[in-house]
Amino acid sequence: MWQRFAPALPANPWNWIAVWRRNFLVWRKVALASILGNLAEPMSSLFGLGFGLGMIIGGVEGTSYISFLAAGMVATSAMVSATFETIYAAYARMQTNCTWEAVLCTPLTLGDIVLGEVAWAASKALLAGTAITIVAVALGYAEWSSIPYALPAIALTGVTFASLAMVVSALAPSHDYFIFYQSLILTPMMYLSGTIFPMSQLPGPFQRIAAFLPLTHSVDLIRPAMLGRPVDSVGLHVGALCIYAAFPFLVSAALLRQRLMR
Amino acid sequence: MSTAAVDIFEVSKSYNDRVVVDALSFTVSPGECFGLLGPNGAGKSTLARLILGVASPDAGKICVLGEPVPARARLARRGIGVVPQFDNLDLQLTVRENLLVFGRYFAMSATEVKAVTPSLLEFARLENKADARVAELSGGMKRRLTLARALINDPQLLVLDEPTTGLDPHGRHLIWERLRSLLGRGKTILLTTHFMEEAERLCDRLCVLEHGRKIAEGRPHALIEQQIGCQVIEIYGGNPHELLPLVKPQVQRAEVSGETLFCYVTDPEQVRLRLANRTDLRLLQRPPNLEDVFLRLTGREMKD
């Protein structure tokens, strides 16, 4: 039993770094374009919705709407960047470019590859989330002191959504299927998780569903940190995100073993 | 524990009830070039995957470089270099960066990779292309880079899956020459190919596969001697089916393939005399080769 699944698990705690560094080396060549591309959407949402709706809405939960929205955009951009890196870029490395196939012929295991890819996608999420946090801080929508608390939460959000997206990548017969994950899972989750408006505005049953969503836990960690408020139930939110990261990681590794090592 | 570089015993593998490798056994000794020869779909690439531990056999035992595979495939792969059937280089990276990235998978430091890079580039005749992006290289150069990349860990065993498919004759000869120099350095090579010429030139021993089964095994020249053992005359230009009864008494064996009649003969003059008045025909007399063996064993017409 163990021998069957050993190839799907990381062989040791450091092998994944070689995969991460490969992706970093490739990314470095297009870094500027990649950063601009990743930030344009959350920034335009932040300013568009923040200023536009902010004028109508005024304050939300004791702060300006744009400050409220900034934390939501940080969590959302971490989710989107980790997801897109995994379902498009990592999927292409697995399916189209056969990069993984080359790595499978080395002492690395499939588990090392998957861990390296998840860590890489989380790094890109951290970069996107941090950039928006810095812009928010610079414009006075968040506290400078919030950055050290927000960064680990952004990184954990990245790992969680990279892991979840890896399951989608492992199952998708082609990249045409990713649109379902985006439109049926991610977009509704964004509206349910209190990123754009407070969860208290949702009807009761939806609030109960939302409480289980990973993005809700991210927002509950990131928003108080950014607004310089105490974070409630840190352990619960971190624990929930860790479960959402670890379980899909194992599931995706097992599915990918079925797919690639038949 | 086996002293063979590769030891395959009664290995079977099926995909969706289709048997791809069927109770196959062979061993590859250290330092030899062993060829797996067969048409597309014979199970060659699947065997390569089984040997690397990337796929698991349904039955049988595999031992590579003294390690049981797939159980300890990861350890075996430390000593293996792989040239896959289709290049999977990082196109966005330069030649040098491709070697660096691959070295890291073998836990090599940047300094260690830098130390071996010049000799690998020289081996691959890519000294002037070190900083070119892989996307800019020709097919032959990419193939040689893939071969250089496979040598980054100084492997004992090289697994080459159709290393020259898609190359022009010049590129192919260059790869063959490079492979021979590796054999000279004591490397063991396991080569899959459907090029008879490649198998005949490079391999010390071969195993001919069809539908995942071994249909012959031995040294190329011994196989040719055993299976054919006489001269071959190829006859073009006429209707081969009409010519067949004409030459039949003079030949040991004759076969039609497409518009060509292949005659296996101990006394070629007899056939020439018989067809002397047929000026419309073209006769090509040659020594037998591995292709004749292969086609004799698997049937003249390519089935795929």
UniProtKB/TrEMBL annotation, chain A:
Pfam families: ABC2_membrane. PROSITE patterns: ABC_TM2. InterPro entries: ABC2_TM, ABC2_TM_bact-type, ABC_2_transport, ABC_transptNodJ, Nod_factor_ABC_transporter. The chain crosses the membrane at residues 30-59, 65-91, 125-142, 149-172, 178-197, 234-256. GO terms for biological process: oligosaccharide transport. The keyword Lyase does not apply. Belongs to the ABC-2 integral membrane protein family. Lipooligosaccharide exporter (TC 3.A.1.102) subfamily. This is Nodulation protein J. It comes from Bradyrhizobium cytisi.
From TrEMBL, chain B:
Its main location: membrane. It comes from the Bacteria. Coiled coil: none annotated. Keywords: ATP-binding, Cell inner membrane, Cell membrane, Membrane, Nodulation, Nucleotide-binding, Translocase, Transport. SMART domains: AAA (SM00382). Residues 6-236 form the ABC transporter domain. InterPro entries: AAA+_ATPase, ABC_transporter-like_ATP-bd, ABC_transporter-like_CS, ABC_transporter_ATP-binding, ABC_transptNodI, P-loop_NTPase. Belongs to the ABC transporter superfamily. This is Nodulation factor ABC transporter ATP-binding protein NodI.
